[in-house]
């Protein structure tokens, strides 16, 4: 194996093992920032030694043991420094020596629930949403600061600052390294699921940039969701979110043409939908429903996605049932976005006028003022009703609101098409 091959292998191993290593170290040192520093030290050691010595049989165990030995060395150096200050006294020395002994004893500890604890720390609600996303991708996704920055089209320094501030906030808040229990669990789990789905959505429909899809982010979110489903197998909404992401991800190949231009849901070649991902999604949805017969918001959205997945052609889609499901979702998790999607389903089931009436009730909603899909959907309905000039204006307004170049071009194309009567309906993607 060449040095280049070894470095590629180390990169792959790091992506797989880094979250478990950081989780195990955090349990021991009780500081997620220090734990990541120690894990990075172990990675540097691997990059220095493995090209010469070869990759060990159990690289994850090697990295963990190396990181823990670095922790012991750091703690011992701290202990020696403290001994120079006699005012600290014997009691502190004893505590330091006990900590070293505990670290040495923990060298071969199993990971246990550490990874789940790290998930809850990374997604802690004490952090703003953008910091939770960055920290989760860093600690659990194994992405570098540069990779996260490129994924979200922001400066690397901005992501680095978010991560540093997030670690500092967690340390200052004294966030315990534990899985929340009782009443706290539902709220904290909701934050975790929100972060994972935010990552997925940014990959599925990029908010800005030249590409409509960023498959790597979808894959990162799916991997995190699958890990969480293994760590929390009795939480129905975890399986609901996994089901939703699996089914949505199944459409990825059909959502863009050869040049990267978006293809809307009703125009997609369903033969390109990934049947393995669909089967996995339907199985996850079944698990969610088996655990809790009353679907939660993510499981409800997965049920809607499943309706599309089961329809062999766009014409076979059961739009009345989808509209009913959106009505139930609106009661479970009311939001203007849900109402917007419900309006699309109602229009497909009962005609554009019914959808337009729902849309018009949302035009004064403050949270949708700058949301490009509101005028985009309204333009669809107006076009189908023959109000072409109004539709054209709505498509143009939608194009001015989106920051994604591919989507902007699609909307402008549809605005131009209003002149020749060929604009197509928007019904999801």
Structure explained in plain terms:
There is one protein chain. Mean pLDDT is 86; it is low at 84-96 and 99-112. The protein is mainly alpha-helical and 429 residues long. Strands 1-2 form a two-stranded parallel sheet. The protein is built from 19 helices and 2 strands. The two termini are 44 Å apart.
Number of helices: 19
List the helices and strands in order.
HHHHHHHHHEHHHHHHHHHEH
Q: Give the total of beta strands.
A: 2
Q: How much is the radius of gyration in Å? A: 25 Å
Biggest sheet, strands in spatial order?
1-2
Query: Span between N and C termini?
Result: 44 Å
Multimeric state: single chain
Helicity, as a percent range: 55-70%
Detail the poorly predicted runs: 84-96, 99-112
CA-based shape: elongated
Structural class: mainly alpha
Strand content: under 5%
The largest sheet is:
2 strands, parallel
Average pLDDT figure: 86
